[in-house]
Design a protein that fits this description.
246 residues, mainly alpha, Serine Threonine Protein Phosphatase 5, Tetratricopeptide repeat, 74% helix, 0% strand, TPR-like_helical_dom_sf, Tetratricopeptide repeat protein
């Protein structure tokens, strides 16, 4: 009897360990840190699954849904950068379908307008012929975000992305984009949120901006600072030639 009881305890322990291993994160910080550490490692494989967990369990909670949408944002950017455009359409459509009702419910939230601008820009990346129609909408969403909250870092991140990816003929300017990214980075620094992968992403965009504008010393300094702070980032060399519009 005692031996059977001990076997039962051992089995129960194994089951509990396994459940703890596969269980979804229990709070928002856990998910943010999952994304943050996976981003540093260049591991995007579980991002969509985690986003779908959040969307299924917290569909009406704004802060949770923002994390899920920002994860889709990062994943779509990764797919563009690694030339996996075939994977983008469904992820983007789902993101838009989840963002729209949030905007209706929270029309004064600058973070949502930043995401709206980003998703519309991604759509241009998929179908360039839509640029004349969607381009002004991207700019309108960015300016709406900035007007709602000039201190919102994601608004300045998208301002940087717009300046970076637009042709010079239509107002694009990589050096001005770097300034917008730097402003976003300063504003991210005012936030108390831990494990925000968008901060690293913004630093990487600044590094890439220096690289592509021929500012080699600043590029090397920024890259060294990144690796001093976060460790070796094995995907940086692949990121440098990556472009949303190929």
């Amino acid at each position: 009897m005692e031996r059977s009881f001990h076997k039962y305890l051992k089995l129960l322990t194994v089951i509990l360990v396994m459940l703890n291993f596969v269980a979804p994160a229990q709070n928002l910080k856990d998910y943010r840190c999952r994304y943050f550490h996976a981003y540093l490692e260049g591991d995007m494989e579980p991002w969509l699954e985690w986003a779908e967990e959040i969307e299924a369990n917290h569909p009406k909670e704004l802060d949770w849904m923002l994390v899920a949408l920002q994860a889709r944002y990062g994943l779509i950017g990764y797919y563009f950068g690694t030339n996996q455009k075939s994977k983008i359409k469904n992820v983007l459509q789902d993101a838009r379908s989840k963002l729209d009702p949030l905007l209706e419910k929270h029309p004064q939230d600058a973070r949502l307008y930043s995401l709206k601008a980003a998703f519309q820009a991604f759509e241009i990346g998929l179908t360039m012929y839509k640029a004349p129609f969607l381009g002004p909408k991207v700019e309108s969403a960015i300016q709406r975000a900035i007007s709602l909250n000039p201190e919102e870092p994601t608004a300045w991140l998208e301002e940087g992305n717009s300046l970076y990816n637009r042709p010079a003929l239509f107002g694009g300017d990589k050096k001005q984009a770097i300034l917008a990214y730097k402003k976003a980075l300063i504003l991210f620094g005012h936030d108390t949120v831990k494990c925000n992968y968008l901060i690293v992403l913004t630093e990487v965009f600044i590094m890439k901006g220096y690289y592509e504008t021929g500012q080699q010393q600043l590029y090397r300094q920024t890259r060294q600072n990144l690796e001093n702070q976060y460790g070796r980032l094995p995907w940086l060399d692949d990121f440098l030639p990556a472009d949303i519009i190929r």
